[in-house]
Amino acid sequence: MVDLARLIQKRENLVLRGRILQSVRRFFQERDFLEVATPLLNPSLIPEDHIHPIETDAGFLLPSPEIHMKRFLAAGYDRVFQIGPCFRKGERGEHHLPEFTMLEWYRAREDYRALADDCEELLTAVGRDLFGRAGIEYRGASIDLAPPWQRLPVKEAFLDHAGWDPLEEERPERFEQDLSEKVVPALDKGKPVFLLDFPAYEASLARKKPADPRAAERIELFAGGLELANGFSELTDPEEQRCRFEETNERRRARGEKAHPLPDKFLAFLADMPPSAGIALGIDRLVMLLAGASHIDEVIALAPEDL
Amino acid sequence: MYEAADLRKGLKIQIEGEPYILTDFSFVKPGKGQALYKCKLKNLITGSQFDRTFRSGDRFEPADLDEQEMEFLYQEGSQYCFMNTSSYEQVEMEEEQVGDAKNYLTNNIKVSVSFFQAKPMAINLPTFVDLKVVKADPGVKGDTATGATKPVTMETGYEIQVPLFIEEGETLRLDTRTGQYVSRVKE
Known about the structure:
The complex is a heterodimer.
Chain A: H1 5-9, H2 11-30, E1 34-35, E2 41-42, E3 54-56, E4 59-61, H3 66-74, E5 79-87, E6 99-108, H4 112-131, E7 135-138, E8 141-144, E9 150-153, H5 154-161, H6 172-186, E10 193-199, E11 215-223, E12 226-233, H7 238-254, H8 264-270, E13 276-282, H9 283-291
Helix pairs in contact in A: 2-4, 2-9, 5-6, 7-8
Chain B: E1 2-3, E2 12-15, E3 18-28, E4 36-43, E5 49-55, E6 59-62, E7 66-76, E8 79-84, E9 90-94, H1 95-98, E10 110-116, E11 119-124, E12 128-136, E13 149-154, E14 159-163, E15 171-175, E16 180-185
Antiparallel strand pairs in B: 1-6, 2-3, 2-6, 3-4, 4-5, 7-8, 7-10, 8-9, 10-11, 12-13, 12-15, 13-14, 15-16
């Protein structure tokens, strides 16, 4: 017994999704970004604290194309983007799918501030393409997409809404819980907001801020309570990156989780990568925002449970 | 033992010797951080509710409940009466305990009831239940492709959104986990 009713009901959202993808591609093409397609199956992975990869007997299904995108930067490509599936085991909820669609883009010789400008321009352009204006309605509230959007340092956001300074104290578990329960709900709902300068312990792939190495040049975009994008000024020192990967693996082992072999080729070409910035944006969540959907299932053709 | 990844709405776990059911569940994973499993738990004995956030690595004891197959007999006021299909013993449950299951209880429907120390705690519905539509306004003829829906009322009083082509008198299959329309049942 197959439930076709759900697929019938989603048509409007799926049509909107198609238009959003066209608009996103046009945006990057107009800015001379090269669209690339890289393998989803890979023998190694970037070790991360809380991402559990799907492992097959032919390799890992990548949770992000980052491991390949940076190779382009090392080879002298200045602007690249990719839209494609990413896989994360055990992530299923209103905003999560074990297989979801991610947009990633990278800029050589720029830092994370350029990514924030890109996000502002991207959402404004897509909003105008779809609706002819720089504002949307999301679940009963108006969101004004017109730049500039607030760039709020994490330290300030936490002092205001959680009562402690995450740069002063290293409390990763507390950080993550307070971020989702206290800080994100308190962000301005009338416009998209950037959180930036995360504690270095929450940004193992990001360059530390020269002015304050307790913080890393990481930026996150929020709108309508949705976490839309995560980007950083990339760490390009292979030794420091190897150290951070080993620390991640130690923490994983301490939690009884599998430590993954280090991606040696990635660490090798990292030395050739110029200072760069890269960001990942959840396409499904972008569609949710523009379609007014509260559940990710509303904007994808088939959910895991439909299969 | 259950793990955090097993948590879902409707799961029954034991905390300090008492059975609880997850009445709501939300998976949250901020940034590249740890997964947080935010649960609303209801004590099946006292009915009191509280919120708790769990993390991966947390473990839970399954609730020590005895499942019995029962048949729904009738409803009188706020009492729902069920009969054990083997022993014919009858048991009554309050509307508050029955909860959303009341949307699916038709005459003689077989359900499983969880008992804790010989007292009925919760109803476990079959995944799919077939119900008749008793009230439906006609939709626009031939309109199957736009995805629009209309509300209809089922024989249990339950109101639900369905595609426009559904008519009064039809039997529909509903998914009791989501409360939604799945398909028509052709007789």
